[in-house]
Amino acid sequence: MAATNKKYAKPVYLVDGNRTPFIKAHGRPGPFKHADLGINAARSLLLRMPFEPTEFDEVIFGSTMPGPDEANIARIVALRLGCGDLVPAYTVHRNCASGMQALDNAAMSIASGRSQLVLAGGIEAMSQAPLLFHPKAVNWLADWWAAKTISNKFKVLSGFSPRLLAPVIALLKGLTDPVVGLNMGQTAEQIAYRFGITRAQMDQFALESHLKLHQAQQDGSLTEVTPMFDGQGKVYELDDGVRPDSTLDKLGRLRPAFDKPYGLVTPGNSAQITDGAAALVLASEAAVKKYDLAILAKLVSTEWAALSPAEMGLGPAHAIAPLLKSQRLKVSDIDYWEINEAFAAQVLAVLAALNDKDYCKQHLGLRSAVGEIPHEKLNIHGGGVSLGHPVGASGARIVLHLAKVLEQNNASTGIASLCIGGGQGGAMLIERSVS
To answer: Does residue 345 form part of some domain?
Structure first.
């Protein structure tokens, strides 16, 4: 593993950002489509800027499953935000890290000198995922439409079965790896087994995630969250998946969700199906000077890695290790960490892998273990288990929140990381000046 320096060629600054409350799905489409979420995340953010939305050079959002009437969701959001006809926009897709990919693309554009101001982030309305027809039903409908005579239509009709109407749930398809045939929960079970992660450890992690998020809501630590109103005037102010009344006893009563009946991963120690969006303003050094912009943080470097899809949850370990090495940093040099909580088992396995000499030697090309990430420095306000994991948005959310955590604690260095469906990992290093 070469320790080449992979910093962005020119300074890239995170000026400010907002996100929506993350709204838990309840078995039916939620009140907001992708465009609604993106606009709500960005509107008040842009009102704080000393420049017009038309001054952006690009708009980039990550998303994995926008609706059929929301193709290239970034362009729709840009137009509805008033960026104008002349500001180009595009959407990126890297599964769970789509929001981080949008930030990386924006940073590379700024570092290359092509852009000065970019609006970037992530959007996902998971509750809006469509129901699909099975291919057999699609073929039957094609035959029906092709039948031109009464006799042909009767012939096609004779082949109809009510079973053809059984819907295919797009969300479940999207959360299943087509190469290894495992859904994301099953991959979490595999890495839990590999590192001996117990059900008690998973439930304890989940409990702490909820309690930390609830405390953060109570003390006002989530300053990046902006309220939303739906069409009926209902206000959404907070992430509504948090369960402050969680206990180990309640979590312990939940049954396995993916490996029945003997698995360890349950709905209680997994990320929630959620709708949400995050929007960030990134700027070059020249733009910061031109508009006298405040700087929240500096984006330093991003690392992408890949591994077997069957163990996709270990992706952060595979991205964090080379990121630290390329920047000549140790775990102790990092003040705060955000590792997206796809599953409690997944985060715990990542921590175990980074602190396991044999794993680091065999799979990460290192001579020794990366080290132990301090519990008190990781996800200090909770994560996906308690606030949800809207797939396309989470990568942008964790970078934004990490920057806010550094600001609140007068700290200088942080790493945000995610596992990625399909067997990948992403990690971003950010810094801020300490006063």
So the answer is: yes
